[in-house]
Design brief:
Immunoglobulin-like, globular, 2 domains, 4-stranded antiparallel sheet, 16 strands, 247 residues, mainly beta, single chain
Length: 247
């Protein structure tokens, strides 16, 4: 497990490894995870702090690879803990997204999404998921020249929101290598509705993009509550973050 960040604590969650039928012995293990400081009254061995694991899988020619299973734990966990964890599968664009990943370090296998989930490559590597944040990775698989292949990892495009929580105006800063593509921020409410779209200006000399959201919706009403900002390049989501507005 990586070092704790400000506002984080360590918790244990109970994970079943086989049937929990009342007629059978319960078999379970405990995961050590990172979480944001829990609210009073939180049940033991449970946590609502989850992280987002998102990104793309490409081949060596930068073509997307669909229907891959990014297997971050034993497959049995998916069947006995279905309310807590779920599989990570690439779509037709090679894109994957899962927002219910516990904050911890994982060994990751990239497998075919068909039983028995055979590995695409033999390489095992590590990812670290931080709770209540977006953890963005890009994987490039080279399986043409060898049976093992190689993996290139691109971790965490940095997005910072300040202040957060805010009583109104927030600054959204993104560190990204300069390019000619249009970079925009889409802000959603908890119902998944887009309440504002703001284009980023050209980056400064340090490749930092910056916008200021005035805390208003399309119709100029004042936003209040929990919101999510997705940063997109050419309709491709590259980062996201949670924003809290308290008025």
């Amino acid at each position: 497990m990586s070092s704790l960040l400000p506002g984080q604590s360590i918790a244990r969650v109970k994970m079943f490894t086989s049937s929990w039928s009342p007629f059978e012995d319960q078999h379970y293990t405990f995961w050590l995870i990172k979480e944001t400081v829990p609210s009073p009254g939180t049940l033991p061995f449970q946590s609502d702090s989850k992280g987002i694991f998102s990104g793309y899988v490409f081949d060596s020619q930068h073509n997307p690879i669909k229907n891959l299973n990014l297997l971050y734990c034993w497959s049995s966990f998916f069947y006995y803990n279905f309310w807590d964890i779920s599989m990570v599968i690439t779509d037709t664009n090679g894109y994957f997204y899962n927002d219910v990943i516990y904050g911890r370090k994982y060994n990751l296998d990239i497998c075919h999404n068909t039983i028995p989930y055979n590995k695409v490559i033999n390489t095992i590597f590590y990812i670290t998921i931080e709770p209540d944040s977006n953890n963005y990775y890009e994987f490039i698989l080279d399986t043409l020249l060898s049976s093992t292949g190689t993996v290139t990892e691109k971790k965490n495009i940095e997005i910072n929101v300040f202040p957060n929580p805010s009583d109104g105006e927030v600054q959204i800063c993104l560190h990204l290598p300069a390019n000619d593509s249009k970079v925009i921020a889409k802000i959603f409410n908890t119902e998944g509705e887009i309440i504002r779209i703001i284009p980023f200006e050209k980056p400064n000399k340090d490749d930092n993009y910056l916008i200021i959201w005035d805390g208003k919706c399309f119709d100029s009403t004042l936003a209040s509550g929990i919101f999510y900002v997705n940063v997109e390049i050419e309709n491709r989501r590259i980062a996201s973050e949670k924003i809290m507005i308290i008025r």
